[in-house]
Amino acid sequence: MWYLNGSFMSSGLQVLVSIVEASHVALYFSASWCPPCRWFTPKLTETYNELASQGKRFEVIFVSSDEDEEAFKTYFAKMPWLAIPFSDSEGREALHGRFDVSGIIPHLVILDAKSGEVCTEDGVELVSEYGVRAYPFTTDRINELKEQEAAAKANQTLHTVLGTFERDYLISNKGDKVPISELEGKYVGLYFVVNGYGPVDDFTAVLVKIYEKLKETGEKFEVVSLFLDNDVASFNVSFANMPWLAIPQGDKICEKLVRYFDLIALPTLALIGPDGKTLNNNVVDIIDEHGFEAWEGFPFNSEKLEILTEKAKAKAARQTLESLLVSGDLDFVIGKDVAKVPVSELVGKTVLLYFSAEWSGPSRAFVPTLIKEYKKIKEKNIDFEVVLVSSDRDQSSFDKNFAEMPWLALPLEDERKASLNKAFKIRRIPSLVAIGPTGQTVTNDAKSLLMIHGADAFPFTKERLDELQKKMDVVAKGWPEKLKHELHDEHEIVLMRTNVYVCDECEYLGSSWTYRCEKCEFDLHPKCALAEKDEEEKATEETPAGYVCEGGVCKKA
Question: Where in this chain does the record put each Thioredoxin domain (predicted)?
Fold first, then answer.
């Protein structure tokens, strides 16, 4: 038996002396305010109830990180297991410390109820991946499951991937049952999706066109959707727009296939060959890169991918500023007061495409730096401009964002933004892409270059960067090899060559040369490490007689 003083049931019934009759006990560190916890709790509840129905002696005890008792009670009311009383803050804190939870939740520690020994602290991962199959959560059991998965992959067929003992069919969006055997000998794309997710919706639109084109050309190709959410109404709406097949809504095999194909992002399109073996765990990046034209690379083997690569190179070589910024009648950008500026006026200039949004904290933080360097570059180079490509969600946010910027922009509701985000594979903002005077892409990471070199990075070419590097190498010969610095007085910092880093004083990016303490992973820009304080700054740092300054405060001695 395993004892826990003061636990009680969600009904409020006290469990005196708390003799927990179970072979295994899980301590569930969770909170109602935590989205990952709210996602995991139903999964744990399902596993708990299923184990109980099988007669397995498994108990869970909720250790709350809620901020008040009302939130605790509301959250706990949805749980079928025990809990540490919210009033027992000392006990809850002791368990957090004992298992080093440190605020990272959800966290599930599974114990042997008889000995109290820890079976695993990876309970969240195991329950998420294996559910009841993970019981009794021992290392031997997990290794056994992994061996079974490896064997299943080695002997994979279309039926072992898509079927179950109870189901040997898929469904069409008309409700027809289609035997899995009808897909044998075909290429099959397993399409992992969720309803109402923008990137999935965008990719689906492209995949439908590719699917129809491949069907038209006689390719033996089918797609099977796996919906990962449980909203039946949304499933029906989304599936109605898909001309292929699907695994029935709510089928638990979908969860198994998430793990089986190492799903890490949505959308994902895994490709299975005519022999039932997996050819590629995800071809989404290939389709994202080439768009509808990706159909020419099907089935995405090395030979076909080489064809796509050569076509992409030829297309890039033809790139001009007009091909990027002109689409039909949309042949302009806007300035202040929504004044239209023809794209033709930007031809022959170095143009930075600035992908940003007012809601993005990093974007707001970068704007002052970009404005400062923009003005410096414009003072010496009239053939230079920046164009904002906004991801703002409404016109008022766009107007607020654009108001402080001295450059140009694409209108908020502009179809060209989608093609630019796709062309340059914008995955995060802020991003800064440099287009040279010929219309060719100079660099997709002008932001880092500006952060490191400031306005001196212009025009962002390799030749300019090489020139800056040579100048810095010459200057570096006059710098001391080692020195002590007040920000890191425990060790000497050593001058060395390096790649990109963040300076621990000014917090800006640096590259090429740094003063570093490798033991402490401490870096300083040479200009920060070697900076001389002026007399005024030194004067302000002198401590008046009778005072002691330390720990960020000054006080009388």
Answer: 1-147, 310-470
8/91 Cα distance (integer angstroms): 13
- Residue pLDDT, tens place only, 140-160: 999 998 888 888 778 899 999
Q: What is the pLDDT of residue 352?
A: 97
Digit-coded pLDDT (tens) for 518-543: 888 899 989 888 876 444 444 444 44
Q: What is the pLDDT of residue 546?
A: 52
Higher pLDDT, 14 or 498: 498
- Rg of the chain over Cα atoms, rounded to whole angstroms, equals 30
Q: What is the pTM of this model?
A: 0.60
| Helices 361-380/446-453 angle, 10° precision | 70
CATH number for the domain whose boundaries are 158-313: 3.40.30.10
CA separation for the pair 185, 115 (Å, rounded): 54
Buried b (16+ CB within 10 A) or exposed e, 65-87: bbeeeeebbebbeebebbbbbbe
d(CA 41, CA 7): 19
Query: What is the average pLDDT value for the chain, to the nearest integer?
Result: 87
Q: Give the span between the Cα atoms of 386 and 354, in whole angstroms.
A: 7
DSSP character at residue 357: -
Q: Report the C-alpha gap between 165 and 252 in whole angstroms.
A: 12
Instruction: Determine the residue type at 487.
Output: L
Q: Which CATH number fits domain 321-460: 3.30.70.260, 3.40.50.2000, 3.90.420.10, 3.40.30.10?
A: 3.40.30.10
Distance CA 389, CA 408 (A): 9
Among the CATH numbers 3.50.30.20, 3.40.50.720, 3.40.30.10, 3.90.480.10, which is that of 13-145?
A: 3.40.30.10
Residue 18 has pLDDT above 70, yes or no: no
Ordered alpha helix ranges (H), 274-389: 284-290, 302-317, 321-325, 361-380
- Give the Cα separation of 10 and 81 in Å (integer): 7
